């Protein structure tokens, strides 16, 4: 579903991704951990085409997105993205937030867009919040709205960049629960997270990144229980 081949991304002299090879198969939940500044967000943003690779290739469902012939907007529509900051429009109701891209990008009519929005709100347990404004919701609810908004676009895969890092601890669980349900339903997911419990229980694979490289990957239980690379050992000893 997602394939990076020798992916390099540099910002000026700063080479942030130093040749990433990564394949994510349909239905997999791949979790990425690693120190701050290791390139995790840049990798996700490169997969989502928010960053143009300096070298190497990114294929989404077999389509080379680095090929100038490729219609990037079409490919991007297949990928849902959820950020640490929820990025909801503050001046729009929840329903407004969930319908604006559907109408503009998917060209759906108002009724259809609202029906889909209500279905997705149901999926994240917020059916009763359709008319609320983001400022009246908790952080956990806002992030669930952001997930519902991504789902409204019928993505084939979802990218999550530290989706619970901005939340108060007591609100983390409700967001992880929604993500777990999505995973159980077979959604292909690439998740940058510090939630080792989620990675262990939900992840099909765990990747450790450091300094722009994938240093280690494998079954989450195995990587967490007996990391092989000294850098992984050091990182986990500090976060676990
Ligand atoms: P992580 O998500 O693992 O914390 P990032 O991918 O956000 O790491 O950042 C890795 C490095 O890339 C950092 O040194 C950061 O300063 C640099 N970087 C990220 N985005 C940009 C950008 N748009 N312009 C310049 N440098 C950037
Ligand atoms: Mg980051």
Unreliable segments of 5+ consecutive residues: none
Mean pLDDT level: 97
Task: Give the DSSP E fraction (strand runs of 2 or more residues).
Answer: 25-35%
By DSSP (H or I, 4+ residues per run), the number of helices equals: 9
Along the chain, the helix and strand elements come as EEEHEEHEHHHEHEHEEHH
Question: How many runs of DSSP E, i.e. beta strands?
Answer: 10
Form type: globular
Which structural class is indicated by helix and strand composition? Answer: alpha/beta
The termini sit apart by 31 Å
> How much is the radius of gyration in Å?
18 Å
Numbering strands along the chain, what is their spatial order in the largest sheet?
6-7-8-3-9-10
Residues in helices, as a percent range: 25-40%
Hetero groups in this structure are: adenosine-5'-diphosphate, magnesium ion
> What profile does the largest beta sheet have?
6 strands, mixed
Structure write-up:
Belongs to the ABC transporter superfamily. Its main location: membrane. It is found in: Cell membrane. Residues 2-236 form the ABC transporter domain. The chain has helices at 40-47, 72-76, 94-104, 110-123, 139-151, 169-184, 196-202, 220-225, 230-239, and strands at 2-11, 14-24, 29-33, 55-60, 63-64, 79-82, 157-161, 188-192, 205-210, 213-218. The chain is an alpha/beta fold and 240 residues long. The strands form two sheets. A six-stranded mixed β-sheet has the order 6-7-8-3-9-10, with helices on both faces. Strands 2-1-4-5 form a four-stranded antiparallel β-sheet, with helices on one face. The model has no long low-confidence stretch (mean pLDDT 97). Helices cover 38% and strands 25% of the residues. The protein starts with a strand and ends with a helix. Strand 1 (2-11) and strand 2 (14-24) form a beta hairpin.
């Amino acid at each position: 579903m997602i394939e990076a081949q020798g992916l390099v991304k540099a910002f000026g002299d700063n080479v942030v991704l130093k040749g990433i090879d990564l394949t994510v198969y349909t239905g997999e939940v791949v979790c990425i951990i690693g120190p701050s500044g290791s390139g995790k967000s840049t990798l996700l943003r490169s997969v989502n085409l928010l960053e143009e690779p300096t070298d190497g290739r990114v294929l989404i469902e077999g389509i080379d997105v680095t090929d100038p012939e490729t219609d990037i907007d079409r490919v991007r529509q297949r990928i849902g993205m959820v950020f640490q900051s929820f990025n909801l429009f503050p001046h729009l109701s929840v329903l407004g937030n969930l319908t604006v891209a559907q109408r503009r990008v998917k060209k759906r009519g108002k009724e259809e867009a609202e029906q889909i929005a209500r279905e997705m709100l149901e999926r994240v347990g917020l059916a009763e919040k359709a008319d609320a404004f983001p400022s009246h919701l908790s952080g956990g609810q806002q992030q669930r709205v952001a997930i519902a908004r991504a789902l409204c676009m019928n993505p084939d895969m979802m990218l999550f960049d530290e989706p619970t890092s901005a939340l108060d601890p007591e609100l983390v669980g409700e967001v992880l629960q929604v993500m777990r349900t999505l995973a159980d339903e077979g959604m292909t997911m690439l998740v940058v997270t510090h939630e080792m419990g989620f990675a262990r229980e939900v992840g099909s694979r765990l990747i450790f990144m450091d300094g722009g490289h994938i240093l280690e990957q494998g079954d989450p239980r195995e990587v967490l229980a007996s990391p092989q690379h000294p850098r992984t050992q050091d990182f986990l000893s500090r976060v676990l």
